[in-house]
Amino acid sequence: MRLLHTSDWHLGRSFHRVNMLDAQAAFIGHLLATVRERDVDAVVVAGDVYDRAVPPLAAVELFDDALHRLADLGVPTIMISGNHDSARRLGVGAGLIDRAGIHLRTDPAACAEPVILTDPHGDVAFYGLPYLEPALVKDAFGVDKAGHEAVIGAAMDRVRADLAGRAPGTRSVVLAHAFVSGGQASDSERDITVGGVAAVPAGVFEGVDYAALGHLHGSQTLGERVRYSGSPLPYSFSEADHRKSMWLVDLGPDGHIEAERVDCPVPRALARIRGTLDELLDAPDLARHEDAWVEATLTDAVRPDDPMARLCERFPHTLSLVFAPDRAPDDPDVSYAQRLQGRSDQQIAEDFVTHVRGAGPDEQEQEVLRSAFDAVRTDATLREVAR
Predict the structure, then answer these.
(1) Which of 70, 81, 214, 224 can bridge 106 by disulfide, Cβ–Cβ 3.0-4.6 Å?
(2) What are the helix (H) ranges across the chain?
(3) DSSP letter at 50?
(4) What is the pLDDT averaged over residues 348-356?
């Protein structure tokens, strides 16, 4: 059976100030073309279909269009909800949609109720483990501690128990949305840490033929049978080195796995560049980034005038500007508290301006700071009197 494993569509999400809906629609078209051209037998989507619990209308319309087009292809699709999705909203109408071959698995209690698909070699059981918020599901799963490893372990125990009661030779696929140990995170995933460590060991998925994971945005192989597809599009500059793709997985009659990465269309390359403003504007080797989405880190000791506008003259798609001035480090033996001893609030504020900007405040700015501190002191005095 040939599977197409994808996840983390994040429909409705923007990249900095760039609306990504057209790029997301292009990805959906690419997914459908891949299903047709590569003779895919089933599509699995491992969570974070939407970017937020109440998605914008345009994102809902795109998802609705995707469901109709997938159903028209006659290729079964199994989806789970992720930590960005509202499980209840995503799962509305799941029973009816099942009849069209679109199987939405958003109820944690149903994690051991598989979707059964059949090929010439027998049955394949698809188990959907939606994102399991430990504090919300620990009682239902009978675990004492509200931790990710505990609740996913309990869910997998149910999966293995159901699988053990099926016909010998039944192959199995688990969809899960989790942070699995060994995976490399990026800046665009929402932190799911609850009650301590969020990561779960890959061994928790032992006993199934393939674990199709979602949550981390980089395509990763944690073992022959445990993989992240990653997001099909970049959602932070920490993903500049990612190769955006889906997994095309062939599940053999004996459970043997062969996997191939299928690249996704990305509307524009990402680039992180660093240096003084003059260096970035003049360096010949940066010409290759002139059409990319750019994050520029300026190392000028003093913040230059109008840096974004000047950068955009060469790099018109600059989206992020970071200041990290190259300065001599302070004496490590002098603590922050020691450096502040004997200094007034006004002096500390002026030092902060100097640290951030590279130059101290002028006379007019000093007067603004002085007026602000006077107002704060006056307000504090009035509050004390009122008591």
Answers:
(1) 81
(2) 21-37, 57-73, 87-90, 94-98, 134-137, 148-164, 277-282, 307-314, 336-340, 345-357, 363-386
(3) B
(4) 85
